[in-house]
Write a structure and sequence with these properties.
The complex is a heterodimer of chains A (about 100) and B (about 650). Chain A is built from three helices and no strands. With about 100 residues, chain A is mainly alpha-helical. Chain A has a single domain, classed as Helix Hairpins, CATH 1.10.287. In chain A, helix 1 runs antiparallel to helix 2 and helix 2 runs antiparallel to helix 3. Chain A is elongated. The termini of chain A are far apart. The model of chain A has no long low-confidence stretch (mean pLDDT about 90). Chain B is mainly alpha-helical and about 650 residues long. Chain B has two domains: about 550 residues, no CATH class; about 70 residues, no CATH class. Chain B is built from 26 helices and two strands. In chain B, strand 1 and strand 2 form a beta hairpin. The mean pLDDT of chain B is about 90. The chains are: A mainly alpha (about 100), B mainly alpha (about 650).
Amino acid sequence: MIDLNHALVVAFLLFGTGVAGVLLRRNAIVVFMSIELMLNAVNLALVTFSRLRGDLDAQVLCFFVMAVAAAEAAIGLGLVIALFRRHESIDLDRATLLRS
Amino acid sequence: MAIDHFPLILLFPLLGVLVNATLGKRLSLRASGGLASLTVFLSFLVAVQGFLALRGVTGDAARVVFTLWEWIASGDLRVDFSLLLDPLSSLMVLVVTGVGFLIHVYSIGYMAHDRDYPRFFAYLNLFTLAMLLLVLGDNFLVLFVGWEGVGLCSYLLIGFWYERMFTATMSTAQAGQKAFIVNRIGDFGFLVALFLIFTHFHSLRFATVFAAALQHPASPAVMTAIGLLLLLGATGKSAQIPLFVWLPDAMAGPTPVSALIHAATMVTAGVYMVARSHVLYALAPAALDTVAWIGALTALMAATIAVAQNDIKKVLAYSTVSQLGYMFLGLGSAAYGAGVFHVMTHAFFKALLFLGAGSVIHALHEEQDIRKMGGLRRALPITFATFLVATLAITGFPGLSGFFSKDEILAAAFQAHPLLWAIGILTAGLTSFYMFRLLFLTFFGASRLSPERAAQVHESPRAMTLPLMILALLSVVGGWVGLPPVLGTHLLGGTEGGFLGPVFADLHHVPGAGHGGHLSHATEWALMGVSTLVALAGFAAAWLRYLRPAAARDLFRAPASVWQRLLADKYRIDELYDAAVVRPLAACAQFLWRWIDEILIDGLVNFSGLAVRVGGEVLRLFQTGYVQTYAFFMVLGVIVLLLRLLA
């Protein structure tokens, strides 16, 4: 029997995977996808809580997250392209402008 | 005649300063110097008006006060920037502007070869302004402003040729610093005296303070302290023991400066201040006696040093110290009028002596050693004639100005204490000796100049000789305003009657002030006779010693006896002060600099800088520049917060 707690565990694992991807991977696209993973983990958690409480507010918030994720995808890809134009590479280790 | 416009006296030199300081570089020598002289002359005209207006006036009418603005109003302390014209300040203003004008004119000739003339004339006008403020102030604080102003100008003008050396070991700038710093010691005394005056009399206005002191004098100890501290200030400015050491070195300045500041006017500021504070001194007999003794000892000491000096300006400098001692002797003998009278006559003949010396130095292209002069009376006839008049005046030749003023002082000293008189008369003999020595070595005998230099010697230009002649005239007739009682009326008047009478009238309220009674005419004749004889003796001694043909040979011989060496070395007082004061202070400063400042304070400052730097270096390690590192710390933080919330 799958109950809602299992859904929350999945959401937590998804979020953890996303965090690990953001922190550990050097490829900008992969980092980017990991962020999407974190967002969707949150979405899953939101939907689960909505179901738990019998309240639709959290599902509404879920749509906002999707919209923001779409906008973020546009900006994020733009950033990746800019990074590539500058360094001929999308390796994040080479994006160290903040340091100097 | 109303004289309410007398503050104009200050305005003219102020304009001169402003124009010369801002536009001076674009003016020619004649325009710059002419303007400076003109402003002082205009002040002189107003001063003459003031003098005429105050003649024959008595009581409160003889005090014209003009308040320019309220200066300080803080609690009890209320000080107006106000000016006072009374017979005493009027006389001082006349001397400052009159002699000052002549010296300004002389400077046009003297500074002809100097590119920096606008600076010179700006300083000279600034000095005149400060000096006039000093004598015209209606309270101690305005006087103090002028007091410091003249000190500043003195410093600036001593170091006027700042790139030159004065002696082998001292630059002119150092000479200026010496004058300034020595004066600071005196100013310290003056300031403390002002504090005491304010705490006890709750005012700094002359009239208020003196009235309060007469009605409710402070305790004798406080009055004596005030008198002595004021005297300390006066010894600084007027070069008396123990603070006289700066004046001989002040000769590093151009000669007109020596004449104006360090002979005729600024150095008499101390005399003026003591005369102005006569009420305070009348209430503090011990302080007054100290004035007399310091004056007498300074007069004698400086005269003995002057005997052994070979620099024409040094001789005159020590002579000035000695004559200032006479003035203090007069003041200390409660003969304030006599002291001020000597200020006036001394301004005439000492300015003349310095300007004459300047003319000689000018003609010989900066030669100042009298051993290398001689026989100049044919080449420099006007300078010689005027110098002779001044020498006769300072030595007290009967009928000339110095005779009357010196005699009045000696008569007062005789009444105060016979020993004071004896010191005074001995000094008179020495004065006569060193002045005639100077005259003989410079103008008489065979020329000791090198032949090529002797051919170039020429009399100075008209701008320089004209002031000499006017001052010579004043040196002759200037004393006639103060004829002794046996010879006629005393126009100036000491403690009673005469022009200065109203100023010193309040002394009548002090029982026992002034050393009672008049001298009998016979005593007065006798005193005059003795001083004339002593002056003649000095003259004869100088004649015998320095007009022998063989005298020239001995000039360059090193001083033989211990006594002569001591005189030539000026009693080694500079060395004494150097060892007793300057070096301990320098060592102290060295300690503060090397240990307290460089190690302790700089150490603390550097340590705080170092700590920040090291801290920064450590924190830098966390700033890798990788976004992911930052994100890692963020996640770490979130996890810590979450654990904290859940725990």
